[in-house]
Amino acid sequence: MFEELNGNGLLIHHWDTDGLCSAKLILEHLKDKKIINVTPTLGNYYLTEEELNKYSKYDFVIISDMSLPEENVLCLAENAKVMIFDHHLGKIIKDVFHHNPIIKGENPDLFPSASWIVNEFLGNDINLFAVLGIVGDHEQKIKNNKFFSKKIDDFCKENNLTFEDLHKMVYLLDTNYKIGDKESVEQAPHLLLKIQNGEEILNNEKLNKNLNNLNSEINKILGIPAEKIDDIVFKKIDTSYNIISTITRRLAWDSGKNTLVINTGFFDDKDQIYMRSKKDATSIIKRGKELGFKCGGKKEVLGAIVPKDKTNMFIEEIILFLENKKGG
Fold it and tell me: How far from 134 is each of 13, 129, 269, CA to CA, in Å?
């Protein structure tokens, strides 16, 4: 499949550890191709008109760890051969090469990250980058997955690492996007191409400085008690850092409850909404898209970017969904 790619190529990847690691694996495999990597505007799960126009000049486009809107993908496919490697919910885009086992009905527990899907597709042995993507997307909860918990434990023993080491590497790699440094996000896959082992991530001075600043902001936010709406943990935050997923994850895992967070401080004219649910989020993700919002997620997660004047309306729908009064 990859051998059919010719000319100038573009790799569009997510900004988190899973996106960075899957990008690294693809770039490594395509080292003989002319290809550059980019991430969308941080916080956007779609491409702007400006980005679409800029990216229309490439002969092939690979999308990794992002469920871009179908209209974005089809626009890119007008001038380029498009390949997608992903594990998010959505629908199959038939006009391009779309490798996503989950939307084809496979068990999500067997495909926990884009990095794992890419690594398997490439026929690689298990390696640090395939594993980091998994830990990045699931953190401690991957220990509940018996199949991958054993694989990660075995990998750690063979490489003199601990799960905590992997966890720390993820936190460090995620700092670039969380502080809003898009340039460093796009440089990160090339940094990963050069490293010899995880110690080089753990000891990276810039990433550690980022992490200290972020931890200070996260702890400040978490120190303010969240609201309770019936059995839902609800929190409104106002920060320029892209940490809504981290805040939501911490609240959800600490409480064991459905969790809903709004960040009013990342965009000037839009709000970020993030939900972690104990029920299948497919229907509420679909509803968000029907309403015209930039919306996506996985089985237990919804992430959305909503115009500020529509936020309260969508929050009410999400609460009804979580209360089993609507959808799902």
Answer: 16, 9, 33
With residues binned 3-state (H G I as helix, E B as strand, rest as coil), the percentages for the chain, rounded to 5, are: 50, 20, 35
Domains of the chain: 2-202 (3.90.1640.30), 224-322 (3.10.310.40)
Phi and psi for 194 in degrees, rounded to 5? Answer: -95, -20
- Quick one: tokens of 11? 């790799």
Beta strands 294-298; 301-307: pairing state: antiparallel
Q: Are strands 258-263 and 232-237 parallel, antiparallel or unpaired?
A: parallel
208 forms bridges with which residues in the sheet?
Answer: none
Q: Which of 145, 135, 150, 139 is nearest to 110 (CA)?
A: 145
* Closest of 97, 92, 28 to residue 60, by C-alpha: 97
pLDDT, one tens digit per residue, over 74-85 is 999 999 999 999
Contact (Cβ atoms closer than 8 angstroms) between residue 21 and residue 129: yes
End-to-end CA distance of the chain: 38
Q: Which two tokens stand for residue 75?
A: 């626009």
Cα–Cα distance list, 68 to 52, 117, 290, 296 (Å)? 12, 17, 15, 9
β-pair partners for 34: 8
What does the CA dihedral 27, 92, 16, 312 come to, rounded to 10 degrees? 160
CB atoms within 10 A of CB 290: 9
Chain segment 217-266, per-residue pLDDT in tens: 999 999 999 999 988 999 999 999 989 988 999 999 899 999 999 999 99
pTM of the model: 0.81
Cβ(210)–Cβ(204) under 8 Å?
no
DSSP 2: G
Distance of CA 170 to the CA centre of its chain: 12
